[in-house]
Design a protein that fits this description.
The chain is an alpha+beta fold and 214 residues long. It is 48% helix and 18% strand. The chain contains 6 helices and 7 strands; from the N terminus they run ααβαββαββααββ. It has helices at 2-24, 30-59, 71-84, 107-124, 158-163, 180-190, and strands spanning 67-69, 92-96, 103-105, 131-137, 144-150, 194-199, 205-212. The strands form 2 sheets. A 5-stranded mixed β-sheet has the order 2-4-5-7-6. The protein has a two-stranded antiparallel sheet with strand order 1-3. Helix 2 (30-59) runs parallel beside helix 6 and helix 3 (71-84) crosses helix 4 (107-124). The protein is globular and about 65 Å long. The relative contact order is 0.14.
Length: 214
């Protein structure tokens, strides 16, 4: 149902965007072109909110499909999708523990969770600073693996950090739908793990999807 509604909304948004783009690129007066430009930005933001709702529905439905996968391939596939989203300027530095040659996880869900964390990191990051994507064994239990994303942004104060994982809460401006971290949490929970956040004002943010590789 969510997919069908999202599809219909996106079609309407696409039509409006085309008409506004024609107006913005026409010989119309600046008094018309500037509002058209702002309207296009608003439509793009609304499209992102629709996509976030659909991703949330996907993360909370369907059976987990664990496969024996090479984590390097999962990371490579994730970064291909990440770069394909466009508008991304942050470099991603990948750190994969050499002893992790195989994992038994649902690769599609892991990719879904990592994309959420990368998007958040890119929005929070300072200009020209790299984002770190690290995968290594975790001390959170036998077979635990941590997929960690670290940004170099301004971080979150204690109040924002305490609410960051609440569904429908967003600390960004303009705000997102506030379901991204809930998607990451669901991905972790489906693998018997959890989502962990560490942050402090002025010190960036570290987000980790900790999975049970079993």
């Amino acid at each position: 149902m969510t997919a069908g509604i999202s599809h219909d909304i996106r079609n309407q948004l696409a039509g409006m965007r085309v008409m506004l783009s024609l107006l913005e690129g026409s010989g119309a007066e600046a008094t018309l072109r500037e509002p058209a430009k702002r309207a296009i930005a608003s439509l793009d933001h609304l499209a992102k909110l629709v996509n976030e709702a659909q991703e949330f529905a996907k993360a909370d439905s369907g059976a987990l499909q664990r496969l024996r996968v090479d984590p390097a391939e999962v990371l490579a596939d994730t970064l291909v999708l990440w770069r394909a989203e466009g508008g991304i300027v942050s470099e991603v530095q990948v750190e994969l523990a050499p002893e992790l040659q195989w994992l038994t996880v649902d690769p599609l869900r892991v990719t879904q969770g990592l994309l959420v964390l990368l998007r958040n990191a890119a929005r929070a990051n300072i200009a020209n600073a790299p984002i770190t994507l690290r995968v290594a064994r975790s001390d959170k239990g036998p077979g635990a693996v941590a997929f960690t994303v670290v940004d170099q942004g301004q971080g979150m104060d204690e109040t924002t950090l305490a609410r960051a994982t609440e569904p429908l809460f967003s600390g960004f401006e303009p705000p997102s739908l506030g379901l991204g971290l809930e998607v990451a949490r669901l991905v972790a929970a489906s693998h018997g793990g959890r989502l962990e956040l560490r942050s402090a004002a002025g010190a960036g943010t570290t987000a980790a999807i900790i999975l049970n590789d079993a």
